[in-house]
Specification:
Blueprint: H1 6-32, E1 40-46, H2 52-59, E2 82-86, E3 89-98, H3 107-113, E4 121-126, H4 132-143, E5 147-152, H5 155-165, H6 172-189, E6 197-199, H7 210-220, H8 223-232, H9 238-263, H10 270-289, H11 292-295, H12 298-322, H13 329-377
Parallel strand pairs: 1-3, 1-4, 4-5, 5-6
Antiparallel strand pairs: 2-3
Length: 378
């Protein structure tokens, strides 16, 4: 694991010959950001008025007033197929599809009409019961080995309506359980018993099962595209923080390989300069991925990053000292640099993960308190 891939070494040799340290740094940044070049397509389909546009906005953490938001309104807004890019990754697109059975999209031509093979994943959405058209589409997707979930939206409305209708006997847990049981029974009767169903409200993301939907979406996404999806979504839950940290740890191995490739070049001082650039760049990237630039004080974040940079300098100095060992020094620098950079990046992730978990836990507690106040007001 400690040896650098020959392809990296060849590329870095060429980059350094052409533009020195700066060219080497740019090459590593391109390697780091390769995930942004992976197209991802998620289809959201269902009848008019079930909340597809609101869900697409919620996953992208946009409101209906934001630039690039899917239009939300009381009138039918999904007449033609529309795509909406994620703000963090333009190649991650959510497609708002008309439901099955409209005049323009009948069953007979629906799959070809939506270009079914374009999409990596499907979310089949309703705000009431799933229709026979919904379950028919589920069966057709299954035949084509397409992954899909069912989503039951507007749960907040159901809870509020039940409380108004039954002010003396209302129990939220009972309402949620009855809705879930009804959906499962209906899907079982229509030959879709094993498909995951998520009860959600696009305006109350910390309530019901929105976080679980995002987490499961990532876990079920095609393997080659999963990392791109993880790095595109925002870190708004404990589960998403953990998914991102796992992905970033995997990525740390590749970044450490690049560090080893640089160390193998017989140029004194280059390894230290590049390693410091790697750690600084990764520290900023990790903190943005975990949402810390927006939620942790600049002083606290700077302290974490400065501490890691100091550790990186010590590791790099050790690598440079190794070059001076007669005969075998240069052969030892690459594996030592790999191990040192990998250790530093994982230590950095340990600290940032703790900070990220504190942030989302505090946010969840605030959301729970706000929900309790709303419930009391009702």
């Amino acid at each position: 694991m400690a040896s650098a891939p020959q392809a990296y070494l060849d590329d870095l040799n060429k980059a350094f010959a052409a533009g020195g340290v700066e060219a080497s740094r740019r090459l590593m940044e391109r390697k780091r950001d390769e995930w942004k070049n992976m197209p991802l397509n998620v289809a959201v389909t269902g009848s008019s008025g079930v909340g597809k546009s609101s869900l697409i906005n919620a996953i992208r953490r946009l409101t209906g007033d934001d630039d690039g938001a899917a239009p939300v309104g009381v009138k039918e807004t999904t007449v033609d197929i529309q795509s909406y890019s994620h703000p963090r990754n333009p190649l991650l697109k959510f497609w708002d599809l008309p439901g099955v059975g409209t005049d323009r999209f009948p069953r007979e031509t629906y799959l070809s009409g939506i270009n079914v093979d374009r999409y990596d994943f499907f979310l089949l959405i309703t705000s009431d019961r799933f229709t026979q058209d919904d379950t028919w589409l589920g069966e057709e997707l299954h035949k084509r080995n397409k992954k899909y979930f069912f989503g039951r939206t507007k749960m907040g409305n159901d809870i509020s309506d039940n409380k108004k209708a039954h002010p003396k006997t209302h129990n939220e847990d009972t309402v949620v359980r009855e809705i879930r049981d009804d959906i499962k029974q209906h899907l079982r009767a229509n030959r879709c018993p094993e498909v995951p169903v998520f009860l959600i409200d696009s305006y109350k993301l910390k309530k019901f099962e929105f976080d679980q939907l995002e987490h499961r979406l990532v876990s079920e996404f095609p393997n080659l595209k999963r990392s791109a999806l993880v790095l595109s979504l925002k870190a708004t839950s404990i589960e998403m923080i953990q998914l991102k940290v796992k992905e970033l740890r995997s990525r740390a191995s590749t970044i450490a390989g690049l560090s080893a490739a640089v160390a193998a070049l017989p140029i004194p001082g280059l390894s230290t300069a590049v390693d410091l650039g790697i750690v600084t760049g990764e520290a900023n990237f990790y903190s943005k991925q975990l949402g810390l630039h927006e939620s942790v004080g600049d002083k606290e974040l700077k302290t974490i990053i400065d501490d890691i940079k100091s550790t990186s300098l010590k590791e790099s100095s050790y690598v440079e000292a190794m070059r001076l060992i007669p005969l075998i020094g240069l052969f030892l620098t690459a594996p030592t640099s790999y191990a040192g950079t990998y250790h530093v990046l994982n230590k950095l992730l340990d600290k940032l993960e703790i900070a990220g978990l504190k942030v989302v836990t505090a946010a969840a507690e605030r959301a729970a308190a706000a929900a309790a106040e709303d419930s009391d007001d009702d």
